[in-house]
Design goal:
Two copies of one chain form a homodimer.
Chain A lengths: L9 H14 L12 H8 L3 H13 L3 E3 L6 E3 L1 H30 L3 E7 L2 E8 L13 E3 L6 H5 L4 H11 L5 H20 L2 E3 L9 E7 L5 E8 L6 H21 L20
Antiparallel strand pairs in A: 1-2, 3-4, 3-8, 4-5, 6-7, 7-8
Helix pairs in contact in A: 2-3, 4-8, 6-7
Chain A binds a DNA duplex (30 and 30 nucleotides) through helix 2 and helix 3.
DNA sequence: AAAATCAGGTGCAGCTAGCGCAACAATAGC
DNA sequence: GCTATTGTTGCGCTAGCTGCACCTGATTTT
C-alpha cells in the first residue's frame, strides 16, 4: 500500500546488496566468507532468492564459494575488471583536476606513476604559456622528477635506498651522501602531504607534487605542477598546499574513503563545464 | 533457435557483458569511455536496454558517466568492492616483494593465480624499460604463462594432462608429445622450487617463476619475472633462486609456517571431481 | 541409536519487471 | 536552416523472478 513505485532494476539492487554484504565490515576477520542463510537474514530476503542469485553471481565470477565451507566471498572477476581499467580511469578522472591546477597557477600540471625505478608521466596539461614540452609516455629517473618524492613517500626506507642505488649507476658518490637527505625529504613530504623540489638537475624541473591514493589507500600516482618562474619558498609551500588538497580530492573521486572509513557518500568529480 | 531454456539470470548476464566492455582491453585507447550505442552494437543488444541498464548501474555506482562526453566508464563502487576481495589482500601483501624483484632485475614482475585453465595476472610491476601493456586482470592459457608451471607444479599428473588437453584446441598434436615434457618440467620445478621457461610461443614471454603458498602450504599463486634479454642458462637459474626465495618470504608473510612445507597431500584434495 | 535442527537447494503458480519496437528528444554535422 | 546520429521514453507482451512449501543432507540433541 505504501511504496512499491521506484523498483526498477530490482535484480541489480539485490545483487549489489549481496555484494555489499560480502564486502563485509571491512575487517579481515571474515576471511571465510558468509553462508546463504546468514546473508538472507541480514538482507531480509528469501533464502531461495539469495541462493539463486549467488549461484548466478558465482557463474559470472563475481563471487566465489569455498569448496569445503560452502561460504561465499567476493570473486576474482571484480578484481579483474577493476585492475584492467584502473589506469584508464585514473587518467580520466584526474584530467579535470589537473586542468584546474594548470589554470590556477598557469603552470604545467602532470599526472605521474612509478614504473620500475623511473617516473612515467601519464598525462600532462599545458599552461597557457609558451612551449609545452610533451612528457606523456616519457619516463625519467625518480630523483629527477618532481613527482618522485611523492610517489616514494611511504616506501620503506630500505627499499628506497635499494631503488636509489639501482638508479644511480654508481659513479655518483655524491649520491651516496644524499641518500640520507633524500630519506629526510621523503619524511618531510609524508608529514606535509606534499613535496617541493627545486631545481636539482640541469634540466630537471622544479615543482611541487602530492600523492594520489587509490581506493585502497595506496599511493598509486602523483600529481605535480612545474615551477618555471622564480618563486620564494613560501610561495612554493602555498602551491604545495593547494596541490595536496587537489590530490586528496582526486583520491576521493577514485574511491578512497574520505577519512579512512568504509565507502560512503558521493565522490562527485567537478564536472567540467 | 529452439533453445531459450537456459536463460536464468539474464539481467546479470547483460550487466556483466556491459561491465566487461567498459573494462576494455587494458589498452589505453579506451580511456574516453564508451557510448550507449557503441556498447549496444558491440553486444548485439537493444539500445534502450543498454541505456536503462547503464542508468541502473550508475545508480549503484558500478559505472559512472562523464558529464560532458556522456560516455560511461566503470565506477567507484566496483573499485571499492574489488579492494575488498580476497585477491586484493594478496596483492597488497605481495606488492613490495614484486617491486623488489622488479628493481633488482629491472624486469617486469608478476603475481598470478590459476583461474580455471587459465592464468590470471593479479599484479604486474613494470620495469623501467620500454612500454609494456597492462596485464593486470588479463588471463592467458596456462601453457603460455611463465607462472603456469609453478602453479601446476604440485598437481596430480592426470589432472594436469586433462587440463592441458582441455586447453589445447586439439589441432596441436605436437602438444600431445610435449605433455610428457611438461610433466617432467613440473617435476623439476617441484624439486628446484622454481620454474624456468624459455620462449615457447611467439608472443609467450620467457620467464622464471616460483610458487606462493597459503597458510596451509597449498600453492595458491605464483610470482614470475619476465626475461626480455638474452641470458645464459646459469643466469636464469640464478634468477630462479632469487625468485624462489622471494616467493618463500611472501608465503611466510601470508601465514605459512616458516618451517619447510607442512605440505599438502592432506585430507583435503584440491578438488575431488 | 533415532529424531530434531539447521543450511542449502528445487518445483511451481502467479504476477511483476524487463524486453523490444518505435516514436521522441537532444546533439552533432553540413 | 535541415539532416544524421545518439540517447531516452511509452507501452503491450511475455520471460523470468518472487515466495511459499517441500526436499535433501549434514550436524547436533537426548
Amino acid at each position: 500500500m505504501s511504496d512499491k513505485p521506484p523498483a526498477p532494476s530490482a535484480g541489480l539492487r539485490r545483487d549489489m546488496e549481496i555484494l555489499e554484504v560480502l564486502a563485509g565490515h571491512g575487517d579481515d576477520r571474515d576471511t571465510d566468507g558468509f553462508g546463504v542463510s546468514w546473508i538472507a537474514q541480514r538482507l531480509g530476503r528469501e533464502k531461495s532468492q539469495v541462493s539463486r542469485a549467488l549461484r548466478a553471481l558465482e557463474l559470472e565470477g563475481m563471487v566465489e564459494r569455498d569448496a569445503v565451507t560452502r561460504r561465499y566471498r567476493l570473486g576474482w572477476r571484480l578484481f579483474a575488471l577493476a585492475a584492467r581499467s584502473q589506469q584508464a580511469r585514473l587518467v580520466q578522472v584526474a584530467a579535470p583536476y589537473l586542468r584546474r591546477l594548470a589554470t590556477a597557477f598557469d603552470e604545467d600540471a602532470y599526472l605521474c606513476v612509478l614504473r620500475g625505478n623511473r617516473v612515467l608521466t601519464l598525462l600532462s596539461v599545458p599552461s597557457s604559456r609558451a612551449y609545452h614540452r610533451v612528457w606523456e609516455g616519457i619516463t625519467v629517473p625518480v630523483i629527477m622528477a618532481a613527482a618522485g618524492r611523492s610517489l616514494l613517500s611511504e616506501w620503506d626506507g630500505e627499499r628506497v635506498r635499494e631503488l636509489l642505488r639501482a638508479t644511480l649507476p654508481s659513479g655518483l658518490d655524491s649520491a651516496v651522501g644524499s641518500e640520507d637527505d633524500w630519506l629526510a625529504e621523503l619524511a618531510h613530504a609524508r608529514t606535509a602531504g606534499y613535496a617541493v623540489s627545486d631545481v636539482e638537475l640541469d634540466d630537471g624541473a622544479a615543482g611541487v607534487s602530492a600523492p594520489v591514493r587509490d581506493h585502497r589507500g595506496i599511493i598509486t600516482a602523483a600529481i605535480s605542477v612545474s615551477v618555471t618562474r622564480a618563486a620564494p619558498p613560501e610561495r612554493l609551500h602555498e602551491m604545495g598546499a593547494v596541490v595536496a588538497e587537489t590530490a586528496r580530492e582526486l583520491s576521493t573521486a577514485l574511491g578512497l574513503p574520505p577519512s579512512g572509513h568504509p565507502v560512503a557518500a558521493c565522490p562527485e568529480p567537478p564536472g567540467a563545464d
